[in-house]
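Q: Structure tokens for this one, please.
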Amino acid sequence: MKIQVITLFPEMFTAVFGSSMLWKASDRGIVEYSTINLRDYGIGPRKQVDDTPYGGGDGMLLMVKPLAEAVAYAKSQDPGALVLLPSPRGQLYKQSDAKRLAAAGQAENGGQGLIIICPRYEGYDERITKWVDKAYCIGNYVLTGGELPAMTIIDSVVRLLPGVLGGETSTEIESFQDDDQTIEFPQYTRPADYEGDKVPDVLLNGHHAEIEKWRSSESKI
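A: Here is the predicted structure, written as tokens:
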């Protein structure tokens, strides 16, 4: 799966792509990451990428021309890739979306890649949405840019790709599996007693039916 990120701050992704499961996915050849510096498509000698909004208002907007040219370059590298835009105006991002993107990205399904645009400043010229396949909102709060939402989407998708986490059922017994509010049951490991705070007895008795019943009752909705 090819994942390209269009950003003014490509250095933000260096540690993320080079750590933990995202690094493992790349090292195993499951995912190929790249960043595209939006500044490379800036206009004029100062490589301008932003301007004041028509109609007035505070702040600056990313201009459509640099964004469109960056997307065009990314598409030339992966013509079938899906273009995503983190935006408060987008659809609320859910686990089912991560599953769909991960399924589409698997080689046997054609290996559809992702191109993620990272907005900055006060946002973007709305005309860029002509090149966007899907806009997602990761929550009802405001961030300074689209880099953290992009990282969130990438992490949620890559971890679902076969061969990344390792365990066959690692991604099956988790929270939000059907976009409901079911939260995974509490879990414990050694020691069984830490300063008087003990692991529930049911988890220590080896009775699998009772354990499953307890886990079901402790899953929160």
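A few notes: Residues 88 and 141 are 8 Å apart (CA to CA). Residues 2-158 form a domain with the Alpha/beta knot fold (CATH 3.40.1280.10).
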